[in-house]
Amino acid sequence: MLKYSKKNINGKIVVRIDQIAYPPTVYLDTWALFDFIGDNNLTDRFIKILNNLGGTLMLSIMSILESVGLKNQKQFQCLCDLIDSIGIDKV
């Protein structure tokens, strides 16, 4: 999750962007991400474990860009469903 804040310090505007992640933090590259969403049992187990532990799924901008260009819209929908199941505040 990204947190944006803006403060006025001595007449100077200071902008701060913090990345907040709750452990365990999991990063899946594009290949692993699509391997997960291709298997419903694996996806369900992953979501359950991550949600039970209160962890964070880290996604790269490249994974998002690669998924937007998919010709198979079912894969893209499965990715969106995965993100929805984890919760946007944990991604």
From TrEMBL:
Annotated protein name in UniProt: PIN domain-containing protein
Native species: marine sediment metagenome
